[in-house]
């Protein structure tokens, strides 16, 4: 009985040491398929006066970049962590945001009538979109 327990314990220890000591073949956070891709979104912006009454609603279809893809993550046995596993998760996110001014060209008054007079027919809005995307450690918002 004691020799079976010792054999089991030694096997478990070798298993753990193997996974902790053997380096991963994939680098941490390696960009597997994290890309900056073009996309199309519909933006609506409402403008109100000082009393909170709706003055106009402007909208438009806008081409913007987005981050999409997968990153290498791993879970491995660990004798150091309380759960017995070391988890390294990576997510595809923007590494740099660029500010851009876009024009919303479909503007309507509160009654739904399209505005055509200069200064009311369009609305410029500042947005921030991804200029580049890459893999970051999940939950790391310090960058």
Strand content: over 45%
Whole-number mean pLDDT = 82
Structural class by helix and strand composition: mainly beta
Question: Count of DSSP E strands?
Answer: 7
- Computed over alpha carbons, the radius of gyration is 27 Å
Proportion of residues in helical segments: 10-25%
GO cellular component, one term: bursicon neuropeptide hormone complex
Signal peptide: 1-28
Protein name: Partner of bursicon
InterPro entries: Bursicon_suB, Cystine-knot_cytokine
Describe the structure.
One of its GO terms (cellular component) is bursicon neuropeptide hormone complex. The structure is a single chain. The chain has 143 residues and is mainly beta. It has a single domain, classed as Cystine Knot Cytokines, subunit B (Ribbon). Helix content is 14%, strand content 49%. The protein has one helix at 2-21; strands spanning 35-48, 54-68, 74-77, 85-88, 90-104, 106-108, 123-137. The longest helix has 20 residues, at 2-21. It is elongated, with a radius of gyration of 27 Å. The chain starts with a helix and ends in a 6-residue tail after the last strand. The model is unreliable at 7-29 (pLDDT under 50).
């Amino acid at each position: 009985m004691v020799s079976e327990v010792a054999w089991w314990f030694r096997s478990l220890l070798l298993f753990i040491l193997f996974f902790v000591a053997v380096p991963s073949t994939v680098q941490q956070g390696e960009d597997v398929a994290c890309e900056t891709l073009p996309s199309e979104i519909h933006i609506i912006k409402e403008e109100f006066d000082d009393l909170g009454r709706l003055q106009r609603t402007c909208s438009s279809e806008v081409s913007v970049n987005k981050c999409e893809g997968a990153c290498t993550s791993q879970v491995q046995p660990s004798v150091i962590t309380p759960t017995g596993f070391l988890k390294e998760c990576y997510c595809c996110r923007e590494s740099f945001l660029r500010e851009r001014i876009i024009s919303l060209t479909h503007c309507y008054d509160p009654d739904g009538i399209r505005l055509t007079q200069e200064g009311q027919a369009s609305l410029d809005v500042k947005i921030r979109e991804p200029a580049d995307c890459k893999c970051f450690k999940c939950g790391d918002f310090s960058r």
